[in-house]
Design goal:
By secondary structure, the chain is mainly α. 76% of the residues lie in helices and 1% in strands. Strand 1 and strand 2 form a beta hairpin. Keywords: Cell membrane, Membrane, Symport, Transmembrane, Transmembrane helix, Transport.
């Protein structure tokens, strides 16, 4: 069994190395060109239409507000990877990996935009009157490939079983390290809290994430910004370190063994893609619920998701780690996932470690919340509402099982299961690329949308 699991892990590492990174990189570049580099041409407009409209009544039809759909997405994408994954990229790829993380985030915006646009375009109402959508719907209705939609839906539904276990174990381990509370009790407590929310449906999830996500993001980023302010004199040198090491091999320093340019790029791309989930097909499930008058308008919110998750939160973690000497210590490479806590501890002492622990708990809890919703929607698509409710119970039970370390053998298949949903989703996006382009062109040329927004803006100014 150990030999078999070792082969599974080796295959998984290979698959999530060059093959998938190249697939997403090429897809992102192709879609960026096809869509006219829109994310670079309209950044101010996109911000005004998203964050600038949070307190405005949304146009169109939907179940959640656009902001609630965004916070639901961010509940899933903002997770442990933002805290423990970034220092790992720095330790194995060098500071230059952060530069390439930024690059892939900008390119990945076109992928995430496309899948969210398609999710809204092909969404429908379920038996309870809620809007539902995602890859399984645009594969079925857009491509007329129901078999592919079933494949995606079934694979995601199963993938979330070990994923929920890993999340449960993560939160239980974090709390045990800081409070010595039994993982079993933590698992039961987390399962009970999550149950209260998810059994209330997507509207309750949206109301909770609308409050929790901004709070947890501001809490963590504000703490990081205090450290940046304390080291403001080093800010230019850190930027220089990130940029210069992105284009030249990084020499060994302390616990850092050095990295070639290829490794730097690979780790940066991997961290950016894993963090914001561009192409994975999960976030469009949240965006499909949004109240909007055009699919493209909601697609803008998915771009903001990458800005918040990767360009703000992951970058905040990187600056904290690089501004400390934690990453250059001799034993740093032995526990890269703990470097963020060490770095915060250097500046805030025990309070710093508590900040990281609290942030991690919030991030993981919110991730579990939306993962269950994603899984329920797959069961609902495949078997109906009753099956969806049944899967809620299964996923909640997985939190407790994961907390005590049960069924760890399943965790080894997690990345392979993720590939089983990512690859068909990327194929579907590419096959439906013309529909995305047509919707994007329609939005920016129609008197009902972009041009009307510009006229209203001019009227308000005058």
């Amino acid at each position: 069994m150990d030999e078999f699991l070792a082969k599974v892990e080796a295959f998984s590492n290979w698959l999530w190395g060059l093959p998938i990174i190249l697939l997403l990189l090429v897809t992102g570049i192709y879609l960026t060109v096809l869509l006219g580099f829109f994310q670079f041409r309209y950044p101010i407009y996109i911000i005004k239409q998203t964050l600038g409209s949070v307190f405005k009544r949304p146009k169109g039809k939907g179940t959640l507000t656009p902001f609630q759909a965004l916070t639901s997405e961010l509940s899933c994408t903002i997770g442990a990877a933002n805290i423990v994954g970034v220092p790992a990229a720095i330790m194995f790829g060098g500071p230059g990996s952060i530069f390439w993380m930024w690059v892939i985030a900008l390119i990945g915006m076109s992928i995430k935009f496309s899948e969210s646009v398609l999710a809204v375009r092909y969404r429908e109402k379920n038996e309870t009157g809620e809007y539902v959508g995602g890859p399984m719907y645009y594969m079925t209705k857009g491509l007329n490939m129901k078999w592919l939609g079933i494949w995606f839906s079934f694979a995601l539904m199963l993938e979330l079983v070990p994923s929920m276990m890993v999340q449960g174990n993560s939160i239980a381990s974090t709390i045990y390290e800081t409070t010595q509370i039994s993982p079993l009790y933590t698992g039961i407590g987390a399962a009970a809290l999550i149950s209260i929310i998810v059994f209330g449906g997507i509207k309750r999830i949206g109301r909770v994430t609308e409050f929790v996500v901004p709070f947890m993001a501001i809490f963590y980023v504000a703490s990081a910004l205090i450290i940046v302010a304390m080291n403001i004199g080093e800010f230019p040198s850190i930027i220089k370190l990130i940029v210069t090491s992105a284009f030249q091999p990084m020499s060994a320093i302390g616990g850092f063994a050095g990295a070639a340019i290829a490794e730097t790029i690979r780790w940066g791309f991997a961290r950016g893609l894993y963090s914001n989930e561009a192409g994975l097909g999960t976030t469009p499930i949240a965006h499909a619920t949004a109240t909007t008058d055009h699919p493209v308008r909601q697609g803008f919110w998915s771009i903001i998701g990458i800005v918040v998750d990767t360009l703000i939160i992951c970058t905040a973690t990187a600056f904290v780690v690089l501004s400390s000497d934690a990453w250059t210590r001799e034993a740093a490479s032995e526990n890269p996932s703990g470097l963020t806590a060490v770095a915060f501890g250097e500046y805030f002492g025990g309070i710093g470690s508590a900040v990281v622990a609290i942030s991690l708990v919030f991030f993981v809890l919110s991730t579990m919340l939306v993962l269950i919703y994603y899984g329920v929607k797959q069961a609902e698509f495949l078997f109906g509402l009753t099956a969806g409710r049944g899967m809620q119970v299964v996923y909640v039970a997985c939190i407790i099982l994961g907390a005590i370390g049960a069924a760890e053998v399943l965790w080894s298949f997690l990345d392979i299961a993720l590939a089983a949903i990512l690859i068909p989703n990327v194929i579907a996006i590419l096959l439906l690329r013309k529909q995305v382009k047509e919707l994007k062109d329609e939005f920016f040329t129609s008197e009902k949308y972009y041009l009307k927004d510009l006229e209203e803006e001019k009227a308000n100014v005058s």
